[in-house]
Amino acid sequence: MTSVPRSTTVAVVVSHAIQHFAPLYRALTEHEVDLRVLFLSRSGLERYFDADFGLDVQWKSDVVTGYHHEFIADLPLRPGWRQPDVTRQMVTRTWAALDRLRPACVLVYGYRYAHSLAALAWCRRRGVPALMISDSELLGQRTPAVRAVKRLTLPHLMRSVSAFLTIGDNNEAYLANYGVPATRMFRTPYPTDETALRAVLAHRDKHRTAIRAELGIAPDALVALFAGKMISRKRPLDIADALRILTRTPRGPVDREIIVIMAGDGVLRATLDAVAAELGGALRMVGFADQERLPRLYAASDLYLHPAERDPHPLAVKEAVLCGLPVVVSDRVGSTGPTDDVRPGRNGRVHPVGDVDALARILGELRARPDVLARMAQESEKVIGDIELAASVDGFLRAVAHVRDTARRG
Fold first, then answer.
1. Total tally of structural domains belonging to the chain
2. Where in the sequence is the signal peptide annotated (predicted)?
């Protein structure tokens, strides 16, 4: 694995503590990277109300442990971030912290917010290399006006970034579209809490049996899982409609019973509860699943479903693959590609967004073909080495080494 000198200070400027990045920060610190994470807000550390889930959410307390960090401000998250006085504080606090640290390079998360642009401006003024990571892709629909503005502004902005930590094939296609050469891209898959997943997978059969017994699901049933916010953008109702089609279709002699577990909450929950009652057991609503319960649901499942109309790179899809599950997604989910989490024709199937009949056909085939499902699961196992935390650490270190070498030559 690539290494960088301990004297290389890398500053990370980020809005707030994001749980799934904490494992990467800790792993980099263990690799003796002098990482300094600068947070603009304490939001998320305490219990807060998530409007999409429609309930209070509490992250694990260790989200800020195991790595150097500081809160350079305690600003409110959206919508307050659009206010002029908040924007000014973002800029001044970011510049002051970077002037004090004098890092060898700076990582920012995208370009949407003032603190990211302020960090890029600081890097440009001080001649310090800038790194960027984002989940941008070209799959989402954009108005002609938005596309025109991006075409005019983004190539210039991208040239100010020394290296990009890319998360997948669609993300790299987006960057290439705006002029970023492959030599400045370093694959750094989104990290997640793999420790919790591996702890469950070490006793997979036990958790599979326990969850199925708890939910009254037969051991030989084909169980598909959806986990996420029950909002229109995620299109969980497409899964319910596909189940309706399957329940109206007579089962063949080898067709397994198919049951979908839905974990999550949101504005569509009441509608989905009504559909679940109508389907008589084919749809099981289990509510919000925390970091302890969700890995057990992956262990109990045979397949993961994600029919969203736009989702740049959902963590639930990655976690499903890390658990060795085949995945079925819509063509608007950005996790697809020959070297990404979901590899069509191998560990995944892709259907046109909103095409419930196509989704039902895929599910119908998989419940009748356990051999196909087993091969897809084997392919997911092969993908794990490309997307696990070690790959994220390696991509980060290669990007830092690249900008250091480039700075020395320049």
1. 2
2. none
